[in-house]
Amino acid sequence: MVLQYDDTDPLSIERYGKKLVGKTFGEVISDSKLPYDAKQKLFESYGNKNRKGGLGNLIEELHFEYKANSDQNADFPKAGVELKASPYKISKKQKLSAGERMTVTMIDYNNPVEEDFEKSHVFEKIEKILMVYYLRDRSLPSNLDYSIDYVKLYSPTEEDLLIIKEDYKKINDKIKAGKAHELSEGDTVYLGASTKGSTAEKSTVSQYYNPDVKARKRAFSLKSGFMTQVLNNYIIKDKDTYEPIVKNPLELKEKSFEEIVKDKIERHIGKSDEQLCLELNVENNNNKGKWSTLAFRMLGIKSNKAEEFRKANIIVKAIRINEADTIIESSPLPTMPLSEIAVEEWDESHLNNYLEESKFLFVVFKEENGVLVLKGCQFYNIPKSLLEGEVRRGWENIQKVLKEGVQLTKKQEKSRVVIENNFPKMKDNEVIHIRPHSAKSYYLFEDGSTHGAGKEIHSDLLPDGRRMTKQSFWLNNSFVYSILEERLKK
């Protein structure tokens, strides 16, 4: 069977999905390639006003021509796109709101939880969603009379993903504690654990972490309030949240992806950051994120959520070099749990996996007469020899401190107390070092006392039960400077 869209391309799926706008579900059946008898059976089955769900299946099977299933993977696996048909309603005051929460995927009580959000079925299902909104009008005689009014590709914003990720952790923490039976949608902000099943008695199952106590079946769901915001702020306003860098696949027949990226940035070489802010509509402030935002805008995207970057694990780093030919600050890597670093094997460690799979795109600004000027960009991935040599040595020295016990020492500095530790310093390794990643500090000592303006959430658990401010690995600024091409330094 030849599909009328490219099932590997999210934008092609969206374009074909938009052909549904203006149709009723009855028309979706009528326009399908099914024989007459099969269509009549569907009219009888789905025409029942009391029937719950299933309208999304009609779209999947009749419009997109693939068999609906309960697979945990995304509906269009080659493109990583999930299809969600969702109702909306209009109030007497003509305000639009989501008709219900959006079920993402069932919570599995039978197996250990997936702690890495980015590897979870939840993340896979919400990373790119083809939202199909239809107006639920109870005055109409049949569900099949509901009209499909909006079709839009949607991805949660970076800010929303941070909250969803924290919600995911809260739900999993309760499950791991053997308290799945105590889950409540009120526990979380955007991502809830909604109940599934007709009655509490019939829908209870055993818990992997607490086999003696049964828990109500639940699903990870995006709450109706969140979905109302999505509807009003993104779907109706037709705002793009999914952002491919290469919007026309034909470009890739002429140039490689990396060449396209470099061309987009290097056409701005010689411009100051102030000039770029004016051209690209970016607020000209001194926030650290400003220069990364400029890099994204030069690429025609708003954040590091570009489809190509996600697939290729490309990390954008804005590098600023001062007039003394020194990079202004080191480059942070993601936070990595200290308690896990202490027990990892190097080959399976967070740091090794991250650096081995990632490629960096350094976008370089150089200070000239007090003004930061764009010099260009460079792709770079850490070679295996360096990873297995200096990086591994640095990681092992840090792990040694964790295993033997981190020494936390209070030191008076003028009017404040600071906490020093015995982790290796930047000068001890040519490539990496470890230091705080959180702006707020929090320490819990063996006697139960605490220190810092932050909260427990700003800290990591140490192997001995104490807590210290979240740490992350950083690429040394001297190392990054050494690998930059000479033209970017001048």
TrEMBL record:
A GO molecular-function descriptor: type II site-specific deoxyribonuclease activity
Xref: Pfam families: MutH (PF02976)
Keywords associated with the record: Endonuclease, Hydrolase, Nuclease
Documented EC number(s): 3.1.21.4
Alphabetized CDD domains for the sequence: Sau3AI_C, Sau3AI_N-like
UniProt-listed Gene3D superfamilies: DNA mismatch repair MutH/Restriction endonuclease, type II (3.40.600.10)
Domain of life: Bacteria
Limits of the DNA mismatch repair MutH/Type II restriction enzyme Sau3AI domain: 66-167
Iron recorded as keyword: no
Entry protein name: DNA mismatch repair protein MutH
Organism whose genome encodes this protein: Kurthia zopfii
Organism lineage string: Bacteria, Bacillati, Bacillota, Bacilli, Bacillales
